Amino acid sequence: MVTGGSGFVGSNVAHVLARHDAEVLAPGHGELEVTDAGAVARYVRATRPDGIVHTAIWNDPAGLVNERRRAWRAYVGATRAVVDAANAAGAHVVLVSTDWVFDGTQGPAAEDEPPNPVNTYGFLKAASELVVAQRADRGTVARIAAVQGVHRARRATPRAQDAGFGYLAASVVDALAAGKRFTVWDSPGLNRLATPVLATDAAELILRALQREATGTLHCVGGEHVDRVALARRTAQAFGFDPQCVDVGSPDAAVVGGQPIPVDTRLDGTATAARLGVGLPDLATTLRRLRDEFEAAATA
Ligand SMILES: NC(=O)c1ccc[n+]([C@@H]2O[C@H](COP(=O)([O-])OP(=O)(O)OC[C@H]3O[C@@H](n4cnc5c(N)ncnc54)[C@H](OP(=O)(O)O)[C@@H]3O)[C@@H](O)[C@H]2O)c1
What we know:
Blueprint lengths: L1 E2 L4 H12 L17 H11 L3 E4 L6 H6 L1 H22 L2 E7 L21 H16 L3 E6 L2 E2 L19 H10 L4 E4 L7 E2 L2 E2 H14 L3 E4 L6 E2 H11 L7 E4 L3 H4 L13 H7 L6 H17 L1
Parallel strand pairs: 1-2, 2-3, 3-4, 4-9, 5-8, 6-11
Antiparallel strand pairs: 7-10
Bound molecules: NADP nicotinamide-adenine-dinucleotide phosphate.
């Protein structure tokens, strides 16, 4: 079972589970409200999943700050509801979490590095991680980062640069394919260093964690760290464009004017790779796979 199945990460997790012939339940927001503990309990009791991957998230940075109670319910309350339902059904629960639980000076952070979030989103994710660590009978925290890929549930994806790394590669490709130049933001107030992963590769690692019953904290990321500018230029190159068409500039004041953004959120996935018995792909491999996925989606 995948919560947030209509989202970017959730739709990729559902896609990967299905290609491994799993029987997948991926209710969208309209089918299951994860902040409703009773509804989650009833859904899980009726469907008896072997594993639950909790990806659903209220994805609204401003809302998280302005509506604290709603935010708490959407992150911590929802995670508690999912964990309790998983416990009752004897299911293994995986919370998809983030590199933003770190403060931006801890990279490359290993799986056992204590979180030290600097903004509301990171705090809510770190609190949700604790729910899994303390409350799940069989629980895994799968941190992912700088996720790139194809949205499997929506044709039009939100491809716009932000303070993090999400959708950065897609934004570059969209601009260059349209014959435009692309300006990658770089400034001290941004997330400048991270460890990208393809959404489907992260999902493969999560599936492996379920198959091996790997509990605890995992870093489901790629095997190479990169800064924003290098990621933008290497994406251009990997997609057959001139990397010189990528300029470097400053973001709008509004992008960096709010809460602190962790600067260096590199994740070390060495221990995760060893536990799961896999190698983590380098960036060239990740970008090659991303290109293949974009091409396949364009012809589908
Ligand atoms: N994308 C990244 O780069 C990245 C990086 C690190 C970690 N993550 C983690 O990955 C997870 C998924 O992120 P994403 O990028 O896939 O977000 P997303 O595309 O915004 O998907 C979130 C999904 O959750 C659903 N949802 C929201 N509130 C819900 C509720 N109360 N009940 C049920 N469903 C609800 C949304 O449905 P509606 O849209 O219909 O409300 C949407 O389908 C998050 O936990 C995030 O922390 C993502």
